[in-house]
Design goal:
six-stranded antiparallel beta sheet, 2 domains, Immunoglobulin-like, about 290 residues
């Protein structure tokens, strides 16, 4: 099958209020289920874009993360190598020699040796950490969060989390010192897989992991931790991060009892239930 972004195919789901988080459900419904249910392998024979719009970039990041890697992922080929495809361009620039690094860097994350056994996306090794009991006052930098849920249903097979981090202070913030924590109940014992679908500062600068809480709290026995390998958030500016987590067998979560879940957040809503940490110290919300 082929999959293309809004610049090539103007499907209604590209205009949905929860785009791009809705793409996982679109793909699950239309072709992902074929492989997930063991009916047959799936080969995504074409996907590509010139990546000239934010919508196309979000689609590209989400699809690459969805495809996974190795025997646990989907088979794929990218369209195209040559640059003269009118709609999508190619891996090569118009000189037929220089690689479009933005495309290659993302595709490299799902390349694998033939016959390899790599797992899909990022398999989260569950860490263990105690929960903070008090929050130090914000002194230099004032950071706030708004949250949007890609799926507002109580029962879901993955948590789709969009966060808007805003610096309301008059000084820039070094994101390398910032971590965010989204608290939830795992509702089972299966391994979990995390992924970044979109980030203003690029998903290559975002790390995600799952941490087991000791002791557990009402509404949370784990949290997804989001950290940054680089970047700076300017004064009175914001950055968006769109991530997700699912179990290795795609079994369900009940997010209605999750501490950080904001019900009916189809657009960004202020939240005080996602932790903001600076150098390991809780400085906002929670």
């Amino acid at each position: 099958m082929h999959d293309y972004p809004s610049s090539v195919a103007g499907h209604s789901w590209f205009q949905a209020s929860n785009y791009p988080q809705n793409l996982t459900q679109v793909w699950d419904t239309n072709w992902g289920y074929i492989q997930q249910q063991g009916i047959a392998p799936v080969w995504v024979g074409e996907f590509g874009s010139r990546l000239q719009t934010q919508s196309d970039q979000e689609w590209f990041n989400a699809l690459v993360n969805y495809l996974g890697q190795g025997s646990s992922g989907y088979n794929w080929t990218f369209w195209s190598w040559n640059p003269d495809s009118v709609d999508t361009g190619g891996i090569l620039q118009d000189d037929w020699q220089t690689v479009v690094q933005q495309k290659q860097d993302k595709l490299r994350t799902i390349q694998f040796q033939m016959g390899g056994q790599a797992t899909a996306q990022q398999q989260s090794s569950v860490q263990t950490q105690t929960t903070p009991t008090s929050a130090p006052a914000v002194t230099q930098n004032a950071l706030t969060l708004a949250e949007q849920s890609g799926n507002q249903n109580a029962t879901v097979n993955q948590l789709q989390i969009a966060l808007k981090l805003t610096n309301t202070s008059s000084s820039p913030v070094d994101l390398k010192n910032v971590t965010l924590r989204y608290w939830y109940t795992v509702d089972g014992s299966k391994n979990e897989v995390t992924a970044c679908d979109y980030a203003t500062i690029e998903c290559s600068n975002v790390q995600t992991s799952v941490v087991k809480m000791q002791p557990s709290q009402t509404g949370a026995d784990e949290y997804m931790q989001i950290s940054f390998s680089g970047g700076s958030l300017a004064a009175n500016a914001f950055t968006e991060i769109k991530v997700r987590v699912h179990k290795s067998d795609w079994s369900n979560y009940n997010q209605s009892n999750d501490y950080s879940f904001v019900a009916n957040a189809s657009t960004y809503q202020p939240t005080t239930h996602v932790g903001i940490y600076n150098n390991g110290k809780l400085i906002g919300t929670r």
